[in-house]
Specification:
Blueprint: H1 15-25, E1 37-41, E2 46-50, H2 64-83, E3 86-92, E4 101-109, H3 115-122, H4 140-151, E5 157-160, H5 166-181, H6 184-194, H7 211-215, E6 240-246, H8 254-270, E7 274-277, H9 285-292, E8 300-308, E9 329-331
Parallel strand pairs: 1-9
Antiparallel strand pairs: 1-2, 2-4, 3-4, 5-6, 6-8, 7-8
Helix pairs in contact: 1-2, 2-3, 2-8, 3-8, 4-8
Length: 338
């Protein structure tokens, strides 16, 4: 059933609808494109779990980035289901004794979802991480109003950093990169994902940027670089930098940050803006504390996002690959708990 159906005749989406929605949700961003989630559909409800086998023990020892990634896929899923005519109501962290059990989703028909939700659902396949230098976005004050409105239900604050903060972020980025260069295990873990070019996970080789382009984004992630780009070599990054913050720096808050991040990235993509989450800037508590000093409140920064206008169109071939749905979705015939 889709959003165009005039009358809902069933109370739960069928398997093809679930598969369609979750295949689309699989385009959600994740740390190093690990896609660290696992779904179970029991015919009545949808269950989301963190996949412990896809945790990065060195880069993400506390699972913070994993939980943010799982929050992003949950929001992507809810957005996709809405476009298919279903309201997905999540109960988050349903079992305190099972920290990897992140949400259980109930359904109810939603034949007329808001146009903005449908617009963001259509943007899921268009969104990608733009690592190249970008031009400044126009009318950013209006954009920020929309982003704050979308983040508010998730208890996440969105702040735009002033231009004078760029050198400080660049210094944090360099300090983080320097620490990582001396960490053999971290380098091995990064190479495992950044050079994992296949048809299911890791980065697409065409999504990497040249060393020259990386130097002009000031605070970009120190990924392996590609050969020199022939496009816009002189363009210096003018993307705006926004920070997503929450009230506490703990696992109860991190999935909600991912949900807000998903909403923000999709809203930007749906309005023609490009984005790139700078996850390395907030990997450590020390780095997060340094960014917190730049904010006008006492919340805890979790993600920094670049928002701007891409220098040239990005092709679909450059988008990072995704796992097969069968690798992260289990269909059961008996409701869980019965």
């Amino acid at each position: 059933m889709t959003a165009a159906d005039p009358v809902a005749t069933v109370s739960v989406p069928d398997q093809p609808t679930v598969q369609t929605a979750l295949r689309l949700a699989g385009r959600a961003p994740s740390f190093h494109n690990t896609q660290p989630w696992y779904w179970v559909f029991d015919g009545h409800r949808l269950h989301l779990y963190a996949d412990s086998y896809r945790t990065l023990s060195t880069a993400d020892p506390h699972g913070r980035q994993q939980l943010i990634s799982c929050g992003a896929v949950l929001h992507h899923a809810r957005t996709a289901f809405a476009a298919l005519g279903w309201h997905a109501d999540p109960l988050r962290l349903p079992d305190p004794y099972r920290p990897g059990y992140l949400a259980v989703v109930d359904f109810r028909p939603w034949p007329d979802p808001p146009a903005g939700v449908v617009r963001r659902a259509h943007a899921i396949t268009e969104r990608y991480s733009e690592r190249r230098p970008m031009r400044a976005p126009g009318d950013f004050d209006a954009t920020m109003l929309s982003l704050r409105r979308l983040a508010r239900p998730h208890r996440v604050e969105v702040d735009v950093l002033e231009e004078k903060a760029r050198p400080q972020l660049a210094a944090i980025s360099e300090q983080t990169a320097a620490a990582h260069r001396e960490d053999q295990f971290h380098q091995q873990e990064l190479m495992c994902w950044a050079e994992h070019f296949d048809d299911s996970e890791g980065f697409a080789e065409t999504s990497l940027i040249s060393a020259d382009e990386a130097s002009r984004t000031h605070a970009g992630h120190p990924f392996p670089t590609a050969p020199q780009s022939v496009h816009h070599r002189a363009l210096t990054d003018a993307a705006r930098l926004v920070v997503l913050s929450c009230a506490a720096d703990n696992p109860d808050e991190w999935p909600a940050v991912g949900e807000a991040l998903s909403a923000i990235l999709l809203e930007c993509a749906s309005t023609g803006l490009s984005t790139c989450a700078l996850t390395h800037l907030t990997e450590s508590r020390i780095a997060r504390a340094a960014i917190a000093v730049l904010l006008p409140h006492a919340l805890f920064p979790q993600v920094v996002v670049r928002i701007g206008v891409a220098p040239v169109a990005h092709t679909r071939s450059a988008r990072t690959s995704r796992r097969r749905l069968s690798d992260c979705l289990e269909i059961r015939t008996t409701p869980i708990g019965e």
